[in-house]
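Q&A log
Question type: sequence-to-structure
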Amino acid sequence: MAKKPLLGMLLVSFLALWGCLAPPPVQPKLLPTPSPSPLHIEPWPQPTPLAFPTPTPPATATATATAPPATPPSGPKPCVPANPKAALPSSLTFTAAMGGAVQQALDAGMPLQTLNQALQQAQLGNYPYAAVEGDFDGDHLTDAAVSLIDPHTKTKPPQGVLLVFLCRKGKFAAPLVFQEPVTDRAWGAPIIHFAQDLNADGRTELVVSSAHCDPTGAVCEERYAILGWRDGGLRDLLRDAAQPLPSPVSSVEDPDGDGIYDFIVETGNGQRLVWHYHEGFWQRQP
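Response status: OK
Response body:
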């Protein structure tokens, strides 16, 4: 039994001695930690800001009313200065009007609207227009057309004349006279339907007609003319009219907006007749 304690002591001594003689434990060699490379980030493109227009403040009513136009209105210049005090002679007759009274009123500066009303009140002016203005010869000066009726004629409608006064050197020249010739039937004074530039040539055309009615005035027929400036004068530019036309109603239309108008007549018997402008004339379409 005594040997066991002795062996234990020897074993303890041996282990202690081994601990002194044993090499120290090997420490693990640590690799140097690499420095992290900087992270390269592409910058995000900045969006291009949208360019919104600067809002324009609405114009006030006062500003709109008082602001002058950007461009002056186009149109012929007056032949003579307007004179609101100019008037026709009192007790005017058809003969006196034909003899120069209308021309004198125009040269005195009587406005066309005033002349129109005065002639109709004197029962000398035709309807719907007794006097209209336009630039018939294209010289950029205001001309005048006047349709006079003779109230003493017994026909229906009454006979009369169309007078066209051209502006010449600051006054109105002696008129061009248009009158239906005397035939087996009496034609009334030329009726002014339209006075406007119908073919975009810068000159005013006149659409006129003359009517003949039966004694009762219930059945009428008309024949038309489109008076336009050609070869130094006013000519009838209406072709293939197949006239006279029964109880017609006329109109002008620009269907394609090119400034050149068609001439249209609706007749009392249900026809719709159309004339197109072509090579200087209004020609009937089949």
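Response note: Confidence is low (pLDDT under 50) at residues 25-72.
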